[in-house]
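ok here's Na+/H+ antiporter, seq below lol
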Amino acid sequence: MNATHALWLLAVPVVAVGVATAARRAGMPSPLALVAAGLVMALPPGIPEFALDPEFVLFAFLPPLLFSAAWESSLPNLRDSGRAIGYLAVGLVLFTTVTVGYAVYLIVPAMPLPAAFVLGAIVAPPDAVAAVSVAKRLGLPRRVVTVLVGESLFNDATALTAFRVAVAATAGEGFTLLSGGWEFLYAALGGAAIGLAAGPPLQWLRTRLRDPVAENAVAVLAPFAAYLVAEAVHASGVIAVVVSGLYLGHRFARSPASTRVIGQAFWKVTIFILESVVFLLIGLQLPAVMAGLSERSPFSLLWWAATVFGVVVATRFLWVFATARAPHLPLLRRRAAGGRPRRPMWREMTVVSWAGMRGVVSLAAAFAIPTNTAGGAPFPERHLILFLTFTTVLGTLLLQGMTFPALIRRLGVNDEDERRTDAVSEAEAQHIAANAALRRLEALVEQERDRLDERVVRQLRDLVEHRRLSAWERLGGAAGPDGAEVPTGAYRRLRREMLAAEREAFVRMRDERRIDDEVLERVLTELDLEELALSRR
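and the structure came out like this:
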């Protein structure tokens, strides 16, 4: 690799992080800005081609992205919404594969039906990264976010399995509907089994290391190990990664504080970089996608692209509304008074239907299409499939992504009731936990009465009492009914000023060579952790 290519290679993550940072500051979804930046970068002549290696994307990007999403997901919430997630992650993917496949078969001359199903499987799985980031920022109800996250965790496995089956049928490698069904079941069940089998030993190892850095190193390697083992036995590496991530993430709450702080910071930075690079790469694929289409009519290409995009969007609307209203398909259903299920609001169904942005998994699958069939002939309409995949991904990201925040605001779908309930639940939990802490303190005081300083005991009691009251005070916001600042708000404001003064004093002493940088690092870490605790919403 020469220096010029190395510089271009470095430019990709640098530009990606820069664009993503600017988008976050501007309050716009960063995936949309990154795709647009990639398109702009790909247009000038002389730009080297950044070919998307499907094997590299599926191994280097997909496992950590899925593992992090699973790690941060709520296992109980996913379990409660399991049926709704299953209907989207499995049912909708297969329904989209068939619908898009038949539509393309009917409108594109000389397109074989198996090849059309290849395209259907490629564009079937939504990538909820952009949708979920907007949903969380704008405060969508938790059940909606849970369904979107759960769908994005599991739908890739369904789509990639359907893709392999359709490619085998197109390439003449032998295929029957029964064999395709068995392959899907084996991939799903095998991946889940490997993910479950990997979880307990990895958790055991992490708890025995007693080293925050080493514990998080195990978590970093876990998704790649689960993915490789599953793929080696032809099971679903995607499901293996998701299941292992759910298992380990559910138990992460019992890890030491230092392990949690380091792990959360690492994953936030890593996922930010990976997502930024992935969406920039989507835009950079334009030259590779346009190759081989010079003989096609621009009008025909535009008509086919618009049709595929329209079918993809319409299929999701049809499936979501049909399954949500069927009595035995409880998509997004809530509980009414008396525990009876209540129909979902059409506004929430509309939001879920519009949150169907496609992403890098679709492009990686498209580039993974073999160039030749088993008989040596060129794979039917490979360049056209690449083009239609790219236009569908681009169309959903730009059109749906750009309008998604406005749609949420227009429909008034929010989680205000949930936030109020969460605040009350937190206050009650803080009260119970504070009582448990006080009981433990009194037991220790009784055992060590002769050795304990009464001032220490009084300080600990005051601290517990402050934490018990602060959660209730936060229910009323930063100000009381008369507009005066509540005690917890004043405490946080004054303590932040004190911490800033302490930090400035420590840095000044370092600059004056009165303390070493190693000492400064230790004391600043303590101040940082306390400030993070004060900043918790």
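fwiw Residues 177-209 form the longest helix (33 residues). kinda neat tbh
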